[in-house]
């Protein structure tokens, strides 16, 4: 028999996993956009707009995909609680924009150069990937070496994205 507390902990664990997965997707999207903007940036306003549009557009696409996949699996439109969950998961990933937008804002105020702001954004986004990896493995019962492999793989993939973008735009 499944107790209510088991259902709640499973549900909250699934929600945490969904939020973490979404954050990783959006961090990779933001990283790719920031890197592309480093070679095509015209102004701080254009950079901020492009990054915002790319991230929000991706989140909307994921939201629609989650709703459609729910309909495909359950043959019904999500109930209000399920729709709130899907929207909450998607909107929680907007947090990846905070530091890049602050850095771009500092460039708009001439505190930093735009190139410096984009470089700092790249570093912050790779650090965010490492943090997401840490959140994913910190409480999991895995040997320490496996946890390190997960963290290392996530950071390496972030660096590979940076190198691919630099190669493509270099």
Q: Tally of extended strands?
A: 0
Proportion of residues in β-strands = under 5%
- Our count of helices gives 6
The level of helicity is over 70%
Instruction: Identify low-pLDDT runs.
Output: 4-8
User: What general outline do the C-alpha atoms trace?
Assistant: globular
Along the chain, the helix and strand elements come as HHHHHH
C-alpha Rg (nearest Å): 18 Å
Number of structurally distinct domains? 1
**Average pLDDT, all residues:** 86
List keywords for this structure.
170 residues; mainly alpha; 84% helix; transmembrane helix; membrane
List the helices and strands and how they pair.
Elements: H1 4-40, H2 44-74, H3 80-92, H4 98-108, H5 114-137, H6 144-169
Explain what the structure shows:
25% of the residues are buried. The chain is globular, with a radius of gyration of 18 Å. The protein contains 6 helices and no strands. The protein has one domain. Helix content is 84%, strand content 0%. It is mainly alpha-helical and 170 residues long. About 3% of the residues have low confidence. Keywords: Membrane, Transmembrane, Transmembrane helix.
Quick structural overview:
The chain has 170 residues and is an all-alpha fold. It has helices at residues 4-40, 44-74, 80-92, 98-108, 114-137, 144-169.
């Amino acid at each position: 028999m499944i107790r209510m507390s088991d259902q709640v902990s499973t549900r909250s664990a699934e929600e945490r996993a969904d939020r973490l997965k979404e954050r990783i997707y959006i961090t990779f999207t933001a990283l790719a956009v920031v890197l592309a903007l480093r070679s095509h940036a015209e102004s701080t306003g254009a950079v901020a707009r492009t990054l915002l549009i790319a991230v929000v557009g991706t989140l909307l696409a994921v939201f629609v995909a989650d709703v459609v996949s729910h309909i495909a699996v359950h043959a019904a439109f999500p109930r209000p609680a399920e729709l709130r969950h899907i929207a909450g998961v998607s909107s929680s990933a907007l947090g990846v924009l905070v530091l890049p937008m602050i850095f771009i804002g500092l460039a708009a105020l001439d505190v930093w150069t735009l190139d410096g702001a984009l470089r700092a954004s790249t570093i912050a986004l790779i650090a965010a990937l490492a943090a997401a990896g840490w959140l994913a493995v910190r409480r999991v019962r895995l040997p320490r070496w496996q946890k390190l492999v997960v963290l290392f793989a996530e950071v390496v993939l972030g660096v590979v994205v940076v190198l691919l973008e630099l190669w493509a735009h270099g």
